[in-house]
Design goal:
This protein has helices at about 20-30, 55-65, 90-95, 100-105, 110-115, 125-130, 140-150, 170-175; strands at about 10-15, 35-40, 55, 70-75, 80-85, 95-100, 115-120, 160. Strands 6-1-7-8 form a 4-stranded parallel beta sheet. The protein is an alpha/beta fold. The two termini are about 15 Å apart.
């Protein structure tokens, strides 16, 4: 039987660092998870409701107007704005999340103090190889890598930093309260 974790686990890292791998491992250990929402196009191997809740920009605006959004970030890609985020309901009922430094900065200090923040800082060449294997044509690899470098250049708000590309999700689970 899996013990109930008191802390939320917040996973941060650039593209290709293993965020989804860690997330799947923590879900297998019994942590509650629902996907973030996004307005970007669905990738070929993604499933709505599993990888993300894919919504329209109009849906995002309605949620924002109603005050339903806990955190979000927008990206301008090829003259189109893509939104990613977590609703207040999702944040309150779940235990594990993939978030960005921008989204982390939007959380209340009490939310951060009751969370275990994991930063995946994996070698850039390993990340490039992983991203190439995705067959993702929605966005360029180099644009994403450079955006990640900028997003994480002074990032230091974490409880655990992982640099080993072959890390074990169970190890991370065991470190949390």
């Amino acid at each position: 039987m899996t013990k109930e974790k008191k802390e939320k686990i917040l996973i941060l890292g650039g593209s290709g660092t293993g965020k989804d791998y860690l997330l799947r491992g923590l879900i297998k250990k019994g942590l509650r998870y629902d996907p973030k929402f996004t307005t970007r196009p669905k990738r070929s191997l993604e499933t709505n409701g599993i990888d993300y809740d894919f919504i329209t920009n109009q849906d995002f605006k309605k949620m924002e107007d109603k005050g339903d959004i806990k955190v979000f970030q927008s990206f301008l890609i090829n003259n189109e704005t893509w939104y990613y985020g977590i609703t207040k309901e999702n944040f309150n009922k779940n235990q594990v999340f993939i978030i960005t430094p921008e989204e982390l900065s939007q959380l209340e200090e009490s939310d951060i103090k009751s969370s275990f923040i994991v930063y995946l800082d994996i070698d850039i060449d390993i990340r490039r190889d992983r991203i190439k294997g995705r067959n993702d044509n929605n966005d360029s690899i180099e644009r994403r890598i450079m955006a990640d470098v900028k997003d994480f250049e002074s990032f230091n708000r974490y409880d655990l930093k992982i640099t080993d590309p072959d890390f074990d999700p169970e190890w991370v689970y065991d470190l949390t309260d």
